[in-house]
Here is the input.
Amino acid sequence: MKEKLPPSKARLIAEELQAMKAEGVRVSPKTLLQRARAKGSRLHDSFEWDDSIAAAKWRLEQAREFIASVTITVKEVEYPVRAWSSVAITTKTGSGRREWFERDTILKDGAKMASLSADYYSQFAALARNVRGQMLHKHDRAWDVICRAIEENVPTACR
Here is the structure.
């Protein structure tokens, strides 16, 4: 799961994106990175410029994607599901970290299942808020269809 940006960094990025738009620059990851390369850029320090560190971080992201891409077919459903999932774990000292577990291990452990369910609930609720935010009118037909589908699984997401 990707980490959420601190509000100050998110504001800085939002300001830069608005500046790009005002200048008529096409907003894309590539153009944002190009602008941040300049040492005088407000975003320069937000990126990792040491290639060995950046490469190691990228390889970790690739490894996460590889683990998450492994699927299995279970008889309860008609489609492939993830074989492994990342679960938030609280250590004995009270600090938190994430670990990867196989589906069957998670299903047999109430705490792991509750943690994964909370993650999915948060993601689903965020998706509902984002979809609603993209709609021009709350009562658009598309919103109604999406909301009905979401409310079957996350009753409070559309309120």
User: Anything to note?
Assistant: Helices lie at 7-22, 29-37, 51-69, 103-107, 110-134, 141-151.
